[in-house]
Amino acid sequence: MDQVFFVLSKLAWSVLSPVMFWNLLLVAGTLFLLLGYRKAALRFLFPASLFSLSLMLFPLGDWLIYPLESRISQPQQLPDTIDGIIVLGGGEDVKGTISWQQPQVGQASDRYFGAAALAKRYPETPIIFTGGHNLLRFDAGTTPADLSHQLLTMVGIDEQRLIIESKSRNTYENFQRLKTVLPKRNGQYLLVTSAYHMPRSVGIAQKQGISVVPYPVDYRSQSADLRRLDFAVFEQLEKLEPAWREWVGLTAYFITGKTSQWFPRQTGSMIETSTDAQVDLR
User: Fold this and answer.
1) Which residue positions does the secretion signal occupy (predicted)?
2) What CATH class has 79-219?
């Protein structure tokens, strides 16, 4: 069943992706125009043009990703002790690494910097990475787990502290498979992932019975006073794509019973959170 869900999610995203949907509208509209069907072409080209204009004039990406990033914040105060630091995969650029034969990172590389900072704060605590290939067809010998081992040691973490889970392909499988490698099944763990991805991650952790203290990183939205008309189409697309994917993921995971709530938030009295608080790890 997990395999079916994985395949269907990949196929569905190929259509639901804003960039792909935009391209499909443009291609279909252009094709009808070349064939002489002007009215049919207009039905595709008009919404595509409207979407393009909206990206130029409005911060659509910020509007969509900010609620995700502000839902769960870094704790005002870190716990005195912790049983491990969980790092979700996603910051690795496997294809770039294979192409250039040196470790490459993507947009979510802040996950590694966050892990490094927490590793200094808890020098005896294991660092637990979880993530495998999430592509339907790709196998070139190097995996995100292989790359994560290199990256985590490059940011100063002793490899003796590393626990690597390399088979999971999505966030649900991350936490399913984590249960087999956690040092303490009923322990408490710091969870490091991108801020926009944290609500779904927390919801799945809660559903799987894993106690986590969220430590979101990799913030991408801008504050309201910085959202100005600057025709930054590519910048907004970079935010819109992962934000829309996350909202779709939250809905799909809730419908299929993989998360505790549709829009999860951290619960419990031990850790209080604030949207204005940042933790000083020095």
Assistant:
1) none
2) alpha beta
